[in-house]
Amino acid sequence: MIKFLQKLGPGLLFAGAAIGVSHLVQSTKAGANFGFGLLWALLLINLIKYPFFQFGPRYAAATGESLLEGYKKLGKGVLKAYALLTLATMFTIQTAVTIVTAGIASSLFGDNISMEIWTVIILSICFGLLLVGKYALLDKMMKIIIMILSITTLIAVVAAFGNSGATTNWTQILPSTDKEIIFLIAFMGWMPAPLDVSIWHSLWAIQKKKQLKTFSAKTALLDFNIGYLGTIVLGIGFLMLGGLVMFGTGKTFSNNGGEFSLQLIEMYTTNLGDWSYIIIGVAALTTMFSTTLTTLDASPRAMNKTLELILNKPLKNGYTTWLILLMIGTIAIFFFFLSEMGSLIKIATILSFITAPFYALMNYLLMCSAHTPKSWQPSKIMHVLSILGILFLVGFNIWYLSIL
Question: Which of 235, 254, 332, 386 is positioned for an S-S bond with 259, CB 3.0–4.6 A?
Answer without folding.
Answer: 254
